[in-house]
């Protein structure tokens, strides 16, 4: 998911009120003509540069910036989001970019349903379901969707945004090593390609420049010893 301009606390609160998760995000997308920049996440561009294009699964695609970029690089993409509004907007952007034939848009609340099949790349950027405990469960399911020899790419926030006035003290930002441990993947089946925390430029909701702390966990499933998890 391309980064939202809302706070992480708001992301965590989605779906906990009278609206369902889908209704919450549909309403948020309808509130503006565009939520995201339309550009791919820098970490996606950086981490997929050495990969040969194949099949990709994006979890939480938003308005489609990452999925459209991947399709433009030659990937065949399955892109998911809980919001039908976001998916419709993303499909329109893909048509305009001439890559709509390379992307399968699917609506999923990933805590309840998940795309079928296995993929050469499974990408989750800033994926925060309403129920925090569901994140590890979804990411473990994502790992099972990585084909032998494929890559799991998880990009997360490593701390609250600097513009957040009252960050939720209970919201947990695990380090990439902690997330890796929580996934509980058989070490003989996976190689760690990246596990790092870093600063990157960001833009506050009021338009001011800022800096965010993010993390990347990039794992490759062994091509020769992969078996059912």
UniProtKB/TrEMBL annotation:
Region (Disordered), start-end ranges: 198-229
SUPFAM superfamilies assigned to the protein according to its UniProt record, in alphabetical order: S-adenosyl-L-methionine-dependent methyltransferases (SSF53335)
Domain Methyltransferase: 57-150
GO molecular function ontology, one term from the record: 3-demethylubiquinol 3-O-methyltransferase activity
Alphabetically ordered keywords of this record: Methyltransferase, S-adenosyl-L-methionine, Transferase
GO annotation (BP), single: methylation
Ranges annotated as biased composition (Basic residues): 218-229
EC number(s) stated in the UniProt entry for this protein: 2.1.1.222, 2.1.1.64
InterPro entries (UniProt xref): Methyltransf_25, SAM-dependent_MTases_sf
Name of protein: Class I SAM-dependent methyltransferase
